[in-house]
């Protein structure tokens, strides 16, 4: 389903708890969709602010993901690097409706021409 | 059309004779008894009752009469007309009338919609079969009670609050109940992993079967329910299936009438909808983006609604909710936010003997959440502190021990003075029955550290929940001399126990899951950290090879993906080449795979095999399937596991070769592949002391000589170069295999996670290893036996499992966005 502002990308139960899946955007940047232990869902660009590591492959803990390449910890809520590291990855608003994941169209299509 | 006698008062019509609708009427009557002429429509053919008590009715603890809130008298006394058993089917906002199913139409001046929620039915085949019920009203309870009367099996889909209360009731009524829950842990919205595990264990002890990560594919049966089939093929027989997977605000009427509806009917702070004459309250509304599924918020909404109606301001500001489970004998409480995150601090108390787990989440000196299991006496106190946003700095140290302790000054008192004040016979360690006097005597007798006290008098040696008290006693007795340092380092900051303590407890107490270990050993965090989780997963796997269930969330990416992640996010793929030997057929298959999946480099590794670089995660299952088809399996180049067995050509070809080193290497690799270990493990076999296979820097190396095989252990070519030590010399290949298996098993059972063999041997000493593996013949055979036993379970090619579809989600995108379309993955 496609509405003006939100894109339906599928049912929540396709996301593993404490894990993530990826959402490629044609002509744009791949997005990582995360699910925390208590079922909250977040989306970030799948690109670590350090050296572009694929955040979707990291270990999810609380509301953070640890990058699989050099262990930076990134907040799923703000996209900011935590601890001593600094940097930020863009977040994309997500909401759940009737068990489906909706993701904000504008932010998801950032940088896509046209 | 409108048939009631003239009454000059404005007519308030209520749709929904449930908890919120009737409470709203009570609140209005309390403020303005005569202001409105009131009519209530109810779909259910009965008076207003306490819906939450349907659970005790199902359990046989209460009757319907016990749970009526407002009987017929209430309607009569207040001049309320109740039209029950007749749902409203339409609202005409222009004419200001409502029409019911029976055809009666009534006009309103103010309309209140309080239609509650509809149970969500998962859209699987068989959902409409007789015997599939929901759990929402008395009719549902009657159906369940009737089914239970016939005995047999029940399946409850949904392991949340409602599902578990249904399961409890059916089980008390004698049914064999299975609960199917999609998520990995029960009640995941209200409970963290630790509490959910305790709950699951208790329900299982009571005879229920709890299946988590159970995805329902179909409800089977021809004329009525006969069972449930899961997506993994499991079938569970059932004569009744209860769907308790969630609720949806009941908004159809409002939507059809053109009111603003989001997830629920959108209302303002006084419960007025987008039409000024229509109000809505209860579970059917959405306020400030929130919908609620519990009664406490409804009471607050009803007060704001009534105040608003009589013209005084009292805006509803949203509610914080708390949860209890109404299952007798299970005490559980949860409130607020326990997702943790940046800036949150967990205060955890576990008491394994009493089965208690308490966790309070503090952020910026305020309580933001609480999860209690086993002892919920302080639930309301925490909830109150949370709602009021009280600063808890002053009582922080005593917070977790509860209100009585914290307000008796336990908090502000110096903890050392507090233990000083205890009498000598006060019990310190409940597990081992050790008193303060005994601990003090032990310290006086020379025990100057926690470890010494533990081994001296056993205090704090079992579950560890009294560790803090013992440390305070040490500080009391030794003053500045007690710096708190440990002879043996604890495993990580989540526990006061060492790796060895934890491993021993796993065996002694038969602990088989990560949450069980954390509870039994009083972990100070709710679910561990990224350093103890992988270690625990390994220790459990090693202790219980046959029963172990993998916890993928406790594996680092490479072990989860069965491939090595590269700096650009692609993966490298290394198939096993037994003993470094390959064939033209294998090479062709590797070459074809490299072409087909666009490997950007093919490299000969230092471990005598080929590495294909730049493979995309989506392609992994496919390239593995291709390599499997050519007879190859995973090389575990990514794992804390057996990596490679390097060999030289040996007596088969080499003019100096003394034995068939290649053949022995292959036998060793076939015996040891697939084994998970504390760290990676490498083997090599050289055909003569020239040592072309570099066997003397391997974890286990063999140097062939004329008279047999020199077995070498503990080498490491990595960051700290260490040459091997000679373990012993043996005469036959069989012996070489047996000693190798026994050595590995000793390492597997005793080394700390992430210790390679080199630092482990430096720590325990070569003589210890020799005593166990060489001198003790029985012991060696037992170790070897345990190794071979474990291998029966571990030698499964993870690639084959993935190629066959296991964990497919790890390799597929969830969907793809092409501008103006979303394309689902599969
Ligand atoms: C591919 C390979 C290099 C090569 O191109 O030859 C390699 C590649 C890596 N090595 Fe190695 N090591 C490779 C042979 C070695 C050897 C030589 C050997 O095995 O004979 C050593 C020294 C011998 C030893 O282990 O004692 C070696 C010592 C290390 C170490 C240091 C270990 C130590 O105890 O100090 C690490 C780091 C670690 O494991 O923590 C490491 C870690 C790594 C990692 C896994 C780094 C990482 O975490 O990403 C590299 C993965 C690359 C990839 O994606 O495949 N690699 N590495 C070799 C694969 C062998 C195989 O077929 O499985
Ligand atoms: C088994 C069970 C146990 C629960 N336990 C707890 C608990 O322990 N704690 C807690 O806080 N909450 C609990 N709840 C939730 C709680 O019962 C609800 O939050 C509460 O009942 C909601 O009140 P409501 O008035 O919005 O909806 P309801 O109480 O459902 O009332 C809505 C009424 O409107 C009627 N209706 C719907 N459509 C129409 C129509 N078109 N015309 C006429 N009538 C209509 C319905 O038949 C229903 O009677 C439990 C719920 C259940 C089912
Ligand atoms: S030595 Fe090993 S770890 Fe270091 S860069 Fe080379 S492959 Fe990577
Ligand atoms: S790329 Fe993420 S930590 Fe380096």
UniProtKB/TrEMBL annotation, chain A:
It holds the Pfam family Rieske_2. This is Nitrite reductase small subunit NirD. The keyword Glycoprotein does not apply. The keyword Iron applies. One of its GO terms (molecular function) is 2 iron, 2 sulfur cluster binding. InterPro entries: Rieske-like_NirD (IPR012748), Rieske_2Fe-2S (IPR017941), Rieske_2Fe-2S_sf (IPR036922). It comes from Sphingobium fluviale. CDD domains: Rieske_NirD_small_Bacillus. It comes from the Bacteria. GO terms for biological process: nitrate assimilation. Residues 6-103 form the Rieske domain. PANTHER family: 3-PHENYLPROPIONATE_CINNAMIC ACID DIOXYGENASE FERREDOXIN SUBUNIT, FERREDOXIN-RELATED. Keywords: 2Fe-2S, Iron, Iron-sulfur, Metal-binding, Nitrate assimilation, Oxidoreductase.
UniProtKB/TrEMBL annotation, chain B:
PROSITE patterns: NIR_SIR (PS00365). Binds 1 siroheme per subunit. Binds 1 [4Fe-4S] cluster per subunit. It comes from the Bacteria. GO terms for biological process: nitrate assimilation. Residues 11-285 form the FAD/NAD(P)-binding domain. InterPro entries: BFD-like_2Fe2S-bd_dom, BFD-like_2Fe2S-bd_dom_sf, FAD/NAD-bd_sf, FAD/NAD-binding_dom, FAD/NAD-linked_Rdtase_dimer_sf, NasD-like, NiRdtase/SiRdtase_haem-b_fer, Nit/Sulf_reduc_fer-like_dom_sf. Residues 639-776 form the Nitrite/sulphite reductase 4Fe-4S domain. Pfam families: Fer2_BFD (PF04324), NIR_SIR (PF01077), NIR_SIR_ferr (PF03460), Pyr_redox_2 (PF07992), Rubredoxin_C (PF18267). [4Fe-4S] cluster binds at residues 648, 654, 688, 692. Keywords: 2Fe-2S, 4Fe-4S, FAD, Flavoprotein, Heme, Iron, Iron-sulfur, Metal-binding, Nitrate assimilation, Oxidoreductase. Residues 428-475, 491-540 form the BFD-like [2Fe-2S]-binding domain. Pathway: Nitrogen metabolism; nitrate reduction (assimilation). Residues 566-630 form the Nitrite/Sulfite reductase ferredoxin-like domain. Its cofactor is FAD; [2Fe-2S] cluster; siroheme; [4Fe-4S] cluster. Belongs to the nitrite and sulfite reductase 4Fe-4S domain family. NCBIfam families: nitri_red_nirB. This is NAD(P)/FAD-dependent oxidoreductase. It comes from Sphingobium fluviale.
């Amino acid at each position: 389903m496609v509405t003006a502002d939100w894109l339906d990308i599928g049912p929540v139960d396709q996301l593993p708890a404490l894990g993530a899946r990826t959402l490629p955007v044609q002509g744009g940047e791949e997005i990582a969709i995360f699910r925390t232990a208590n079922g909250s869902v977040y989306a970030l660009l799948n690109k670590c602010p350090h050296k572009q590591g694929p955040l979707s492959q990291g270990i999810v803990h609380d509301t953070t993901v640890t990058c699989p390449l050099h262990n930076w910890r990134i907040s799923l809520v703000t996209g900011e690097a935590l601890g001593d590291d600094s940097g930020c990855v863009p977040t994309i608003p997500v909401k759940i409706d009737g068990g489906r994941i909706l993701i904000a169209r504008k932010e998801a299509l950032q940088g896509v021409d046209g | 059309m409108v048939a009631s006698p003239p009454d000059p008062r404005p007519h308030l019509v209520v749709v929904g004779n449930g908890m919120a609708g009737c409470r709203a009427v009570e609140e209005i009557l309390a403020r303005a008894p005569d202001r409105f002429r009131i009519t209530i429509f109810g779909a259910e053919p009965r008076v207003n009752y306490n819906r939450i008590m349907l659970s005790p009715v199902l359990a046989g603890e209460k009757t319907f009469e016990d749970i009526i809130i407002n009987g017929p008298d209430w309607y009569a006394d207040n001049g309320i007309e109740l039209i029950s058993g007749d749902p409203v089917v339409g609202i005409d906002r222009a004419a200001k009338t409502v029409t019911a199913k029976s055809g009666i139409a009534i006009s309103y001046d103010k309309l209140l919609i309080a239609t509650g929620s509809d149970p969500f039915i998962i859209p699987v085949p068989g959902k409409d079969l007789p015997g599939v019920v929901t759990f929402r009203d008395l009719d549902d309870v009657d159906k369940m009670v009737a089914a239970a009367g016939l005995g047999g099996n029940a399946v409850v889909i949904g392991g949340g609050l409602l599902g578990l209360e249904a399961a409890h009731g059916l089980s008390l009524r004698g049914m064999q109940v299975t609960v199917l829950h999609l998520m990995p842990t029960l009640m995941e919205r209200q409970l963290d992993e630790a509490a959910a595990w305790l709950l699951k264990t208790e329900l299982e002890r009571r005879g229920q079967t709890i299946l988590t990560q159970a995805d329902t594919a179909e409800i089977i049966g021809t004329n009525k329910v006969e069972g449930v089939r899961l997506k993994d093929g499991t079938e569970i027989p059932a004569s009744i299936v209860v769907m308790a997977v969630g609720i949806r605000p009941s908004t159809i009427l409002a939507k059809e009438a053109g009111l603003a509806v989001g997830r629920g009917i959108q209302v303002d702070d006084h419960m007025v909808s987008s039409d000024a004459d229509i109000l809505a309250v209860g579970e059917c509304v959405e306020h400030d983006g929130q919908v609620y599924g519990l009664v406490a918020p409804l009471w607050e909404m009803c007060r704001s609604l009534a105040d608003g109606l009589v013209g005084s301001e009292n805006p509803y500001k949203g509610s914080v909710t708390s949860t209890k489970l109404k299952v007798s004998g299970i005490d559980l409480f949860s409130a607020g936010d326990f997702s943790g995150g940046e800036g949150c601090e967990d205060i955890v108390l576990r008491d394994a003997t009493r089965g208690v787990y308490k966790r309070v989440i503090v952020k910026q000196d305020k309580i933001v959440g609480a999860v209690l299991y086993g002892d919920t006496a302080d639930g309301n106190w925490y909830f109150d502190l949370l709602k009021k946003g009280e600063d808890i700095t002053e009582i922080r140290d005593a917070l977790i021990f509860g209100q009585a302790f914290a307000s008796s000054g336990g908090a502000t008192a110096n903890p050392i003075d507090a233990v000083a004040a205890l009498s000598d016979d006060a019990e310190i360690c409940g597990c081992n029955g050790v008193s303060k006097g005994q601990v003090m005597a032990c310290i006086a007798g020379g025990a100057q550290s926690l470890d010494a006290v533990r081994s001296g008098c056993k205090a704090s040696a079992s579950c560890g929940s009294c560790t803090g008290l013992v440390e305070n006693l040490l500080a009391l007795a030794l003053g500045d001399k007690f710096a708190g340092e440990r002879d043996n380092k604890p495993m990580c900051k989540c526990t006061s126990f060492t790796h060895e303590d934890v491993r021993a407890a796993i065996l002694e107490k038969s602990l088989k899951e990560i949450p069980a270990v954390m509870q039994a050993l009083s972990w100070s965090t709710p679910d561990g950290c990224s350093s103890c989780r992988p270690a625990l997963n390994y220790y459990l796997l090693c202790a219980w090879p046959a029963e172990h269930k993998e916890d993928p969330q406790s594996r680092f990416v490479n072990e989860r993906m069965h491939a090595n992640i590269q700096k650009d996010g692609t993966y490298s793929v290394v198939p096993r080449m037994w003993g470094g030997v390959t064939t033209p057929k294998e090479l062709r298959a590797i070459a074809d795979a490299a072409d087909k999946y666009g490997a950007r480099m093919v490299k000969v590794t230092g471990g005598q095999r080929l590495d294909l670089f730049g493979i995309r995660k989506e392609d992994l299952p496919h390239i593995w399937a291709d390599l499997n088809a050519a007879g190859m399996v995973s090389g575990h180049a990514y794992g804390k596991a057996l990596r490679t067995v390097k060999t030289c050509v040996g007596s088969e070809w080499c003019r100096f070769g003394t034995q068939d080193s290649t053949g022995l290497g292959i036998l060793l690799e076939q015996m040891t592949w697939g084994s998970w270990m504390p760290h990676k493990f490498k083997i090599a076999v050289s055909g003569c002391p020239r040592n072309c296979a570099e066997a003397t820097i391997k974890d286990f190396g063999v140097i062939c000589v004329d008279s047999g095989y020199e077995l070498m252990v503990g080498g490491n070519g990595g960051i700290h170069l260490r040459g091997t030590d000679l373990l012993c010399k043996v005469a036959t290949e069989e012996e070489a295999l047996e000693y190798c298996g026994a050595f590995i098993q000793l390492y597997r059972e005793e080394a700390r996670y992430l210790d390679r063999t080199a630092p482990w041997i430096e720590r325990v000493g070569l003589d210890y290893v020799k005593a166990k593996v060489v001198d003790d013949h029985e012991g060696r055979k037992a170790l070897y036996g345990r190794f071979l036993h474990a291998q029966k379970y571990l030698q499964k090619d993870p690639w084959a499992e993935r190629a066959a579809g296991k964990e497919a989600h790890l390799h597929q995108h969830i969907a793809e966005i092409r501008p103006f379309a979303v394309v689902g993955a599969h």
